TrEMBL record:
Domain MARVEL residue range list: 1-90
Sequence intervals crossing the membrane: 29-53, 65-84
GO cellular component, one term: membrane
Protein name per Swiss-Prot or TrEMBL: Myelin and lymphocyte protein-like
High-level lineage: Eukaryota, Metazoa, Chordata, Craniata, Vertebrata
Species, as recorded: Gymnodraco acuticeps (Antarctic dragonfish)
Compartments (UniProt record): Membrane
Length: 92
């Protein structure tokens, strides 16, 4: 059984034999990508609902605005981490 190297990974080596580091880096990339997507979708939904609902109580309205800002900041940080994880995963 011969192994030819075409690029980074040799041919005919199963994915699960690549090692724990490779799989951990891939999981890190996928996890933070999904977290960024879900935080973005939650932030957009909350911003839209906050925009549509008339503020009956200004305190609740300000809490909703703070939650939207937090969601967008969390999305930005998760997205940056996803980019850095993908760079680290590709350089592995």
């Amino acid at each position: 059984m011969t192994f030819k190297s075409e690029g980074i990974l040799p041919v005919r080596i199963p994915f699960w034999c690549l090692g724990a580091d490779f799989i951990d880096l891939l999981q890190d990339f996928v996890y933070h990508g999904l977290a960024a997507f879900f935080y973005l979708s939650a932030g957009v939904d909350l911003a839209y609902i906050t925009f549509l609902v008339k503020p009956l109580n200004s305190r609740i309205y300000h809490i909703d605005i703070a939650a939207v800002v937090f969601a967008f900041i969390a999305t930005l940080l998760y997205f940056i981490h996803t980019i850095l994880s993908s760079i680290r995963w590709k350089n592995f």
